[in-house]
Amino acid sequence: MKIYKIFAISCFVSLLFFSNAKAQQTVENTQTTIKYLSGTGKDDMVLWDFYCSDGMQSGKWAKIGVPSCWELQGFGGYNYGHDKRDTDLKIHDEFGLYKHQFLVPKEWKNKELKIVFEGVMTDAEVKINGKLAGEIHQGAFYEFKYSITNLVKYGAENVLEVKVNKVSANKSINAAERDADFWIFGGIFRPVSLEVLPKDHIERVAIDAKATGEIKTALVISSKKAEKVSVVLADITGKKLQDLTITDFKKEDDNWTFSTKAVNIKSWNPEKPTMYQLQMSLLDKNGASLHTKIEKIGFRTIEVRESDGIYVNGKQIKFKGVNRHSFYPTSGRTTSKELSIEHVKMMKDMNMNAVRMSHYPPDKHFLEVCDSLGLFVIDEMCTWHTPYLDTKVGQKIIKEMIVRDVNHPSIVLWANGNETGWNTALDNDFAKWDIQKREVIHPWNIFRKTNTMHYPDYHIFAYDGPAKDKIYFPTEFMHGLYDGGHGAGLDDYWKQMWNMPLAAGGFLWDFADEGVIRTDKNNEIDFDGNHAPDGIVGPYGEKEGSYFTIKEVWSPIAIADRFIRDDFSGIFQVENRYHFTNLNECVMTAKWVQFNGPNEKTEFKVLSQSNVKLPNLEPNEKGTFSVEKPQNWKSADALYLKATDPHGKELFTWSYPVKTPEKLNSERSIADAKGTVSSEIKNEQILVTANNKHFKFSKTTGLLQEVIANGKLIPLNEGPIILGHKGKIDTIFVKQTDTKTEVIALFKTNKKYYKWDENTETTQDFIKWTIHQNGLVDLKVEMRSQKKVTGYMGISFSFPEQEVNGMKWLGDGPYRVWRNRMKGTKFNVWENDYNNTVTGESGFVYPEFKGFFSSLYWMKLKGNNNNGFTVYCKSDATFLRMLTPQQPVDPQKGATVKDFPVGDISFVKNIPAIGTKFQEAERTGPQGNPENIFGNDDEPIIIDLTFEF
């Protein structure tokens, strides 16, 4: 006898699809029993017999785990999709044969028995004991079932056989599912179960539960005895709350409809996703229960108001959404409830409130998690660029999708395919099966009430003339290829989306890099070039920098930018960007901290901590809050404000430096009077020795050529190269005193020569090295520039990458930044080990080590085979450039930054923006503008550093 997963469903117990129970439970007349013939997900498979016709491990019977995609189990062959366009590639068209034995107990003889397939790729022919269970099912992502009551043997073993063709016999199915921009797999990839029902039973139910408590219900029944129905509202645990009175009861053969109303209910929304059970019992003429069906519901009302917006429970919604594939690297389209929970929690952590199913209905457990944890959902029929020309098969698929998903409160819209994949003859079919009559959209199209444009340029989005009366609602934007898009540019777009009355938000593309493990290529991970590395997180959920940018930009507590100076009032401006939550339901704490130095183990010490009273602000209201200033607040280095929502989830932690870099570093004891210093000029070099440290400078350029500290070479050299400055060296001279040596290089000016002023050092651009007797080295560079600059402004040094082991720094981190992705960091002491991650392509170790880091105060470089060095920055608004990131193979239009400063380590005053797969950075908003505004002759750019070797 086989071991199966079995569940009994009573009128007081929710249907639990993912229990670990293996033993059969007692079946009562009014219960539904679910017995799994397969496992329930990627981490819980049951072995079946399997034969693959072609490719890996083909031509022989073997064992395969079910559910699974057979490629990931080492069978058949891989292909990404785009079948019609990539004609030079092999289109894998193997089929698979499955066999499995299962026992049907004698007690089920008087029951109705159905076999349920939650998802099979792609065409499925099902036989029970050698006989067809029904017509061949076509379409991969849709649940289907057959009645097998008359096909099974009771009290005996039965044989299940399934033939699965990876390529469908239906051209429309292939156009929809195989010519798509995602991985194509084969197999029984979602669970298979037996559904055991009383002979008299409820086949299915559709529910419309409004925020008012009003409920409309449609039942399809199979019964000759049933006369009426009773309805109980229970909480999500099954505890009875109230008996509901039925009104408007109508029977049309096996189709029953009725209305009722619940009282004292809490509505459902993503911020407070209150769920209930609706327990419906089919009764005979004597009032005896024939069958009880339980549905989880949430009370909420959806309206799409023309030329206005999308409203839920009377509140206009800004969708902060992301597109999400059902996918995992080691299992393909086979997922698990645990993975659904993990993904939804990450979306909620990024302060998202919505997710679009791309481009097919997900596992039903994903929708259950969206219901329970709170996310709006767009559920989508699977097409990609090519519509279902076969209207009949399209009608069947729409029915299967909506019949399964209709009762989820999280679903607010249906999508009729993707990017011209719309058969408009099917638009009205959604309402045939959806009692809630939710609106249908055409993603990437102006259709009915919405304009769901994809990847709009910032300026087009703002001034899209032909559709000014439509609800702006891009179902894909900020394409996140590699490190481009997502957070980069989002701040600009969101300012528009939030403030435009007709903008309803949008959906980022997409959630996770869709890299698959290639069992035919030594288990390497494959993204099919640049087709699939589009995620905010890596294939296993590794968080990229944009993750935290999104978290800040989409925080429902929006704090206006603020700087702390000596006259700081303690007052912050704030806006409540929740839809259903008062700001005073959240908690905020303020923490004043003082940072430790580069050689200390701990990051900081807390000087003071207090609670912040958030104001009584309803959604969309603005106001202020005050932070308590302790007596010693000016001795702090930074202020942290941490906000948590009513459920205890961190919304974001904002950080505000209190001291300038000059003030913080000048207060540290980084210099003393010990040691001696000497200098000489030899062979066109300036040689300086101080405290067992030896320095070589060029006599003609003033550049540092060599550092030897305590007998070890520290390979920082060939700097400072001046970036964004065209002047030439005019004079170099050395000043020697008992306590220091100064090496000064003066630049020519375009106007006239100025006399060097030792007191002000402001009349001429210069490089000034000061080597103190204790071996500390100051570097001060002063330069003037044009007001508008498109290149870098700053200085750069060489330091061989192979000699870098890691760095510790005080500044914004731990992730690198781009000009249009500055948010999401925190001012703190950070430490990153060296890595060579190419975002979304290789490595997947985050944060990336290489790139630009903002608000530098100090940095300690850890060297390989050298002692490294520490540099203290005393200049405001200075970026550290650490090495040069490796370029991804094919970033297309803008998903990388190619031009970095010369050298390896730089200190710059401006950094570039990054674009997306389809857009150069300047097309994503003002922060993508390549021009920088600097000073003039009266406002020189100053970089002031101290090196400790």
UniProtKB/TrEMBL annotation:
Residues 63-198 form the Glycosyl hydrolases family 2 sugar binding domain. Residues 759-870 form the Beta galactosidase small chain/ domain. SUPFAM superfamilies: (Trans)glycosidases, beta-Galactosidase/glucuronidase domain, Galactose mutarotase-like, Galactose-binding domain-like. It catalyses: Hydrolysis of terminal non-reducing beta-D-galactose residues in beta-D-galactosides. GO terms for biological process: lactose catabolic process. InterPro entries: B-gal_small/dom_5, Bact_Beta-galactosidase, Beta-gal/glucu_dom_sf, Gal_mutarotase_sf_dom, Galactose-bd-like_sf, GH, GH-type_carb-bd, Glyco_hydro_2. Its EC number is 3.2.1.23. Residues 303-522 form the Glycoside hydrolase family 2 catalytic domain. Residues 1-23 form the signal peptide. It comes from the Bacteria. Residues 201-300 form the Glycoside hydrolase family 2 immunoglobulin-like beta-sandwich domain. Keywords: Calcium, Glycosidase, Hydrolase, Signal. The keyword Transmembrane does not apply. GO terms for cellular component: beta-galactosidase complex. Its cofactor is Ca(2+). GO terms for molecular function: beta-galactosidase activity; carbohydrate binding. It is an enzyme of class 3 (hydrolase). Monomer. PANTHER family: BETA-GALACTOSIDASE. Belongs to the glycosyl hydrolase 2 family. This is beta-galactosidase. The lineage of its organism: Bacteria, Pseudomonadati, Bacteroidota, Flavobacteriia, Flavobacteriales.
